[in-house]
Amino acid sequence: MPEVEVAGVGLHPFGRFPDASLKDLARVAVLRALADAGLGTKDVEAVYSANAMAGLLQGQEQIRGQSVLREVGIENAPVVNVENACASGSTALNQAVMAIRAGACETVLAVGFEKMFVADRDASLNALESAADLDVIAGLGLQFTAIYAMRLRRWLDAGLLEPHHLEDVSVKSHFNGSLNPYAQHQKVFTAAEIAASRPIAEPLTLLMCSSICDGAAAVVLRRGDGPARAAAVRPRVAVRGSVGASGHTPAADLPSTPTVCADRAYEEAGVGPADIDVVEVHDAMAPGEILYYEQLGFCAADEAGHLLDSGATSLRGRLPVNPSGGLSSRGHPIGATGLAQVAELTWQLRGEAGSRQVEEPRLALAQNSGGWLQGEPAACNVHILERIEPWS
Amino acid sequence: MELRAAIEVESTARRRRLDRAAGLLIGSGCPVCAATSWPPRAVCHRCGSPMDLERALPREGALLSFTKVWVPRPGLEAPYTLGQIEILDSIFFAHVRGLGAEARVPMTVALVVPGEEDEDEPVSFWFEPAAGAREDG
Fold it and tell me: Phi, psi (5° rounding) for residue A254?
């Protein structure tokens, strides 16, 4: 099976960009990723294009990828449009990995873009609500803030977490975001300010939650044993694990969907959770990060609060989690998020993350979830990346 | 029962989900592994067998978690409370009312179905703490 490398990554900053169209957002991310890879648009053999909401918010229900890619002159190459709610970006990446592993292509682009700021805020909320089985939940007023809130309350009531953990992890998220020039929210907040912000879905407050966001992210993958490129003078990053799954009806004896994906990804990569050096998790609400400590195998459920308290998951800790600021601070333009996680981890593995650089990581893990079915994510992907060259 | 038996079953739009007269939810039940699901589905998610589409669920279940939501949505004034309900092995979300300030989960809750004449109700059913359910954990 061919090796797969991350040849280039690029982002359009995340935030509110009223003058930027879907094409503008995607153009910036795609061209930055191609420039980062030392490649041109005509080198792209296939594209997996992720977007979740343009059908509802911009009316571009069909051929979203082909439409935005015209702007950068990508034609002829097959374009597959990927929609998997908040996991769309990582699903596109997973498909791109498989295209190279299958031997069908040498150079593949995965791009994700989303424009959630529109004139009618209810339209954005309705679009978010459609990340569930509407046949079942229509009319309930069930937003994903409520899903996270209910997951967290179970842990609080079981004595696995204290309320301060929700505030502390949000402080960490905002601090990391303040160091990220691509982040939507680049401001630090105290625990008291976070606790005092307005309630959204108890126990979550406004400053614990991701918000409506515009942005785009792109990742160029290439076959690892392909021809040498100019950009190969940099430390190379390989994809060691790429695993996706759909959610399931939860039961006490069944592992969570992120656990299922992570276990398979560890097996595929031939590593375990103790080998991972830096992590990006899908914290659509910052406190959700703590739940993933257990789901991804980094600790037992009753140790998750202690892991946070110990500082292990902060930028200078032994297992930094969400150095980008995560979804809550970096931002969560739905279709772009999974690829933005991989961009951040690629920068971290290369040593290019600036003031938020963690200490010489070799293995990185990205976990991206999308939608929900009865409490479990509807889609989930876990990717494991490795820096090939040793740190000197 | 052969899987093909699930091809020609009642359409999803015509399946009952609620027996208003009896005040019960109607789900599906698996004749092979006894799994249940609400709302009803044609094929069992546990063992892959065709399901019985008319399985009345017990009135009481467990409230696994809940949240008070402060963002209004069309037809719903904030705050309102949503909960994750488990009845037998069927798990779903629903509105919850009557929880005290010190409510803790898990808690036993009971289904409430309003009368058909109550046109102002935004939801067709909700759950409340069952008689005798402890709200202080």
Answer: -110, 135
